[in-house]
Amino acid sequence: MQVAGKVVVVTGGANGIGKALCEEFHRAGAAKVVVVDLDETGARAVARTVDGAAFPCDVGRESDIRHVIEETERQFGPIALFCSNAGIGGGFDPLSVNAGGSSDEPWAKSWAIHVMAHVYAARHLIPRMKARGGGYFLNTISAAGLLSQVGSPAYSTTKHAAVGFAENLAISHRDDGIKVSILCPQGVDTNMLRSIPKGPQSGDGDLTPEQVAKDALAGIEQETFLILPHPQVLGYMRKKTENYDRWIAGMARIQAKMRESYRT
Ligand SMILES: NC(=O)c1ccc[n+]([C@@H]2O[C@H](COP(=O)([O-])OP(=O)(O)OC[C@H]3O[C@@H](n4cnc5c(N)ncnc54)[C@H](O)[C@@H]3O)[C@@H](O)[C@H]2O)c1
């Protein structure tokens, strides 16, 4: 899909990858870039630089997502591309003694933001997109949704669920002309990455959000389901599916090394 002349919504657009996506879509000639974020001041600041619009929104609340969709279409016309990008890095504990040990709170929050936000966008946009013969969803997930994020069970699990939902969305609505891409980088130099200590997610080098946004746009133009800004991830996926037990043993070694480095 070409973004030029289209209405695009980006959640988590006030910072990091989302901000870079807004800027990239604006450069590509989007008719209107709608910047959606909990951080209203940040969203307005980005909107100003891309001649866009800003909406405050908690993506974990269905009524907020519905409002963004209804108001965007009322004010600017049909949404061609909806990017569910907002995310949180909560629950990282390299010294955890029990993968299921944390309270429900980080699990519920990650589930709402990483999974239900994508479901709500589909729930309220699919009928509109079907009626007009197509549309596009870009869901920022993570290499953690394909592999794992050691020390972060809630992040890994909800990002895996997000991959599962995106696959189902793409399968269910292929014949309706609706396309889906998932954006799955490893480390990207943003506030989120800076808020957690350096770890294996940076093993292949951290990318800039701008580079990731360029890769996302190229993937949308080519209509590729899986967008991997770090191409190494494809090799890791192959290793995982080739021999799951060997892969788990390798990941356990990475986790042990990480624990060791945090203890010292
Ligand atoms: N940075 C990385 O290394 C990395 C790697 C892989 C995937 N990701 C994913 O990329 C996406 C963007 O992350 P980032 O690195 O740019 O982080 P970031 O912290 O720089 O930006 C995230 C944005 O999402 C917003 N946000 C958080 N919760 C929200 C909510 N409930 N409703 C609306 N907005 C909300 C924040 O206010 C912020 O503006 C996330 O889904 C993240 O999981 C990041």
Essential attributes:
alpha/beta, single chain
3D architecture notes:
- By secondary structure, the chain is an alpha/beta fold.
- It contains nine helices and seven strands.
- The chain has helices at 16-27, 40-49, 62-76, 104-132, 153-173, 191-194, 209-222, 232-242, 244-263; strands at residues 7-11, 32-37, 53-56, 79-84, 135-140, 178-183, 226-227.
- The protein has a seven-stranded parallel sheet, with helices on both faces.
- α1 links the parallel β1 and β2 (32-37).
- The relative contact order is 0.13.
- The mean pLDDT is 96.
Number of helices: 9
Ligand names: nicotinamide-adenine-dinucleotide
Helix/strand/pairing category: alpha/beta
Round the mean pLDDT to the nearest integer and report it.
96
Strand line-up in the sheet with most strands: 3-2-1-4-5-6-7
Strand content: 5-15%
Order of helices and strands: EHEHEHEHEHEHHEHH
Strands, count: 7
Question: What is the rounded Rg?
Answer: 18 Å
Between the first and last Cα atoms, what is the distance in angstroms? 50 Å
